[in-house]
């Protein structure tokens, strides 16, 4: 499937921005499930300082702002050819060793709730237990926009019983690690059948399964990723793979607007 994507992030300030530095992880790369036909990054009100591959092999750009701008726009757009591999990404690896994805982070630390979730997965093959875990996360944590923040931990979202794709991915990754699997967080885009325009990117998790390699699980939708998914960045959790992050100096008030379109 060939997908056309635009992702526009606009910042408006009520006073000049003295200095800001932003890290962008918005560039898809070729891999087993996708081929990038075209992809362009355009920045207004800032300048690109450097581009590099981070320790998770994500294409990363740093942009800086200094002086008078009241408005900064970051927009990426392009076309990506995807293919359905039944959720199996395979044994392609980046710079990070497998053992790194076995370690907990602040957002994915397993507490009693996640340990109880793991205990409920029952018997079966690795894939059977992981699919069962995915459905349990989906059933116990209802998709509710605005119920959590980017700092909400997996354990807190599970206790709340509500969250978004970031929370589902954190809970699933935390539980998979507690089961002994390396697990990682994936940020990207999803073509939704009901809407072309979206207000946020998507996220899911991957688990390294013996003999298969990395296998994807989208607990928000209860499926493994198919040809509607485009991956952008990976990490141990959201903070490692967040599309845009950075620092800003000054007292200017910020207004943020995000617009994403994903269509065939």
Compile the SSE list and pairings:
Layout: E1 2-13, E2 19-24, E3 34-44, E4 47-53, E5 59-66, E6 71-82, E7 88-90, H1 112-119, H2 126-140, E8 142-143, H3 154-160, E9 162-163, H4 165-178, E10 183-190, E11 197-198, E12 202-209, E13 213-217, E14 229-235, H5 238-241, E15 244-249, E16 254-263
Helix pairs in contact: 1-4, 2-4, 3-4
Any descriptors?
single chain, 264 residues, alpha+beta, Immunoglobulin-like, C8orf32 fold, five-stranded antiparallel β-sheet, 5 helices, 16 strands, 18% helix, 41% strand
Question: How would you describe what is shown here?
Answer:
There is one protein chain. It is globular, with a radius of gyration of 19 Å. Helix 1 (112-119) crosses helix 4 (165-178), helix 2 runs antiparallel to helix 4 and helix 3 packs across helix 4 (165-178). The chain starts with a strand and ends with a strand. It has 2 domains: 2-81 and 244-263, Sandwich (Immunoglobulin-like), CATH 2.60.40; 86-241, C8orf32 fold (Roll). It has 5 helices and 16 strands. The model has no long low-confidence stretch (mean pLDDT 94). A hairpin with a 3-residue loop joins strand 12 (202-209) and strand 13. 18% of the residues lie in helices and 41% in strands. It has a 5-stranded antiparallel β-sheet with strand order 3-6-1-16-11, with no helix packed on it. A 5-stranded antiparallel β-sheet has the order 7-13-12-10-14. Strands 4-5-2-15 form a 4-stranded antiparallel β-sheet, with no helix packed on it. It has helices at residues 112-119, 126-140, 154-160, 165-178, 238-241; strands at residues 2-13, 19-24, 34-44, 47-53, 59-66, 71-82, 88-90, 142-143, 162-163, 183-190, 197-198, 202-209, 213-217, 229-235, 244-249, 254-263. It is of the alpha+beta class and 264 residues long.
């Amino acid at each position: 499937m060939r997908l056309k994507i635009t992702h526009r992030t606009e910042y408006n300030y009520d006073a000049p921005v003295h200095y800001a530095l932003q890290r962008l992880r918005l560039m898809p790369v070729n891999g087993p499930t996708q081929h990038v036909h075209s992809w362009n990054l355009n920045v207004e009100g800032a300048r690109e300082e450097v581009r590099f591959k981070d320790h998770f092999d994500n294409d990363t750009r740093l942009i800086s702002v200094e002086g008078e701008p009241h408005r900064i726009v970051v927009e990426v757009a392009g076309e990506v050819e995807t293919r359905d591999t039944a959720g199996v990404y395979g044994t392609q690896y980046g710079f990070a060793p497998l053992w790194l994805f076995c370690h907990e982070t602040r957002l994915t630390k397993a507490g009693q709730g996640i340990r109880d979730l793991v205990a409920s997965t029952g018997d079966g093959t690795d894939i059977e237990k992981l699919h069962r875990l995915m459905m349990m996360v989906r059933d116990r944590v209802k998709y509710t926009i605005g119920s959590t923040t980017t700092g909400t931990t997996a354990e807190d979202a599970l206790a709340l019983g509500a969250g978004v794709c970031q929370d589902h991915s954190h809970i699933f990754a935390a539980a998979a690690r507690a089961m002994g699997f390396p697990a990682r967080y994936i940020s990207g885009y999803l073509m939704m059948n009901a809407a072309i325009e979206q207000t946020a990117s998507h996220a899911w998790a991957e688990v390294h399964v013996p003999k298969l390699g990395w296998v994807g699980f989208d607990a928000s939708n209860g499926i493994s990723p198919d040809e509607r998914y485009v991956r952008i960045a990976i990490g141990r959790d959201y903070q490692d793979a967040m599309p845009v992050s950075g620092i800003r100096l000054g007292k200017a008030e910020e207004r943020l607007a995000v617009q994403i379109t994903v269509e065939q």
